């Protein structure tokens, strides 16, 4: 499987964010997208996720499921956690697992892996920022998607949380997955750097 | 199918929990209708003539009150991004969200109607007619209102814009809803004609609403 983008140009609010961007990632490979603030790291992830429309260029996933579009084969973990404060931890995860569909793993096991198995009945509104992030990470495990698009994934995670997450990413890459992460901090895994917008 | 039923169940559950929107609509409806006899005065004949119009206006405003949050909440917490990316067509997801909203916020209004009919001096037949027209007409309010809710997300403007956009679309529903109820109470029109048009409005909005809302959300991707 190989995800690639050619000649990507992104325009937001009438301003060109980047142009002529090329990238490629193969199975088992992680791409760390770096660059100064406002250089277009998040925009690149949202282009791949189909949440922005490129002004020029193409994105293709070779060797994926031909029936599905690229965004349908991606997990997107953005700045916002997509959690409902009124629902419990288990209900939040069960909803996304049911809604996203596809190949699934056990929800309880996913919660255990991110260290939230003791809080399944707690409303998500009572979680701390780090716990909310862990719950969003559980979504990546509960439903299988070959491509993970991560935007500052380690925000709000403590040191053990970051170690746990590095382990999860290694597992995902080992299973033939791909990761594209916008990040300032090191990811804790072997990754190739994709720098946007020249030197800072 | 699992995806859509999961979305409907989630939205209903959120609406019914503390802080959800379901109760707000019914309480607003109750307030408007309860205050009306005090404003109009103790003229029972006048009250029963105005009754259907008051109930319809109350229901219309109550359903608009909670509708502007339909997509806004999902947009703010990032859920809308994941819904847009998912394997479920956005049109169907929109329809499921509107259906959930109608079940949680529209149905309680219809259930409350017989009780409120008493306050407006409506007899059993008249109350039944109003409840029936609300049952046939409120889906049209929800599904056309959804278009406004989607535009409110796209244009980053809240409630006021939504009211301005949606009110003109809901005027036909109001006209035929009240006409059908009046036909039962005072005549001389038949009930069938305005009621059929009301049902037709609901069916049209059931089809057009999801497509228009999805198109608006896609156009506003940002």
Automatic annotation (TrEMBL), chain B:
Signal peptide coordinates: none
Primary localization class, coarse: membrane
Name of one Pfam family that matches: CcmB
Segments crossing the lipid bilayer: 21-41, 53-71, 92-120, 126-153, 160-185, 191-217
Topological relation to the membrane, as annotated: Multi-pass membrane protein
This protein's UniProt keywords: Cell inner membrane, Cell membrane, Cytochrome c-type biogenesis, Membrane, Transmembrane, Transmembrane helix, Transport
Entries under InterPro entries matching the protein: Cyt_c_biogenesis_CcmB, Cyt_c_CcmB_bac
Location of the protein in the cell: Cell inner membrane
Lineage: superkingdom: Bacteria
Family to which this protein belongs: Belongs to the CcmB/CycW/HelB family.
Function as written in the Swiss-Prot or TrEMBL entry: Required for the export of heme to the periplasm for the biogenesis of c-type cytochromes.
Name of protein: Heme exporter protein B
Organism: Bradyrhizobium diversitatis
